[in-house]
Amino acid sequence: MTNSIPNKPLKKGSLVFVDRENYVKSIEAHASDNDLPYYVFEGPGEILSLKDEYAQVRWRRPVPDVWFKLDQLKEYTQ
Q1: pLDDT per residue over 32-46, tens digit each?
Q2: Peptide bond preceding 44: is omega within 30 degrees of 0, i.e. cis?
Q3: Is 18 exposed, middle or buried (0-12, 13-18, 19+ CB in 10 A)?
């Protein structure tokens, strides 16, 4: 029997940040710029839209929205 609490699924409106470890290992990281801005790893960003296994994230900065795979995102908690 496990005592772990299951993760809530991410949904529209969820606050998130990018999990650096999962992102660095991904194929998307090899196809993109090596240095992502620090704020994507610190969060929070808000999920605006979901499509299949991707989420569109808006950061609280004057920058474009970005699509990330859901497995590269983690729920933001203070």
Answers
A1: 777 889 999 999 999
A2: yes
A3: buried
3-state secondary structure string across 9-52: CCCCCCEEEECHHHHHCCHHHHHCCCCCCCHHHHCCEEEEEEEC
pLDDT at 29 over 90: no
Inter-residue contact 74 to 16 (CB < 8 Å): yes
Q: Which residue has the higher pLDDT, 2 or 27?
A: 27
1 has a pLDDT exceeding 70: no
- In the numeric block, the tokens 């729920």 are attached to 75
| The two structure tokens encoding residue 21 | 């470890």
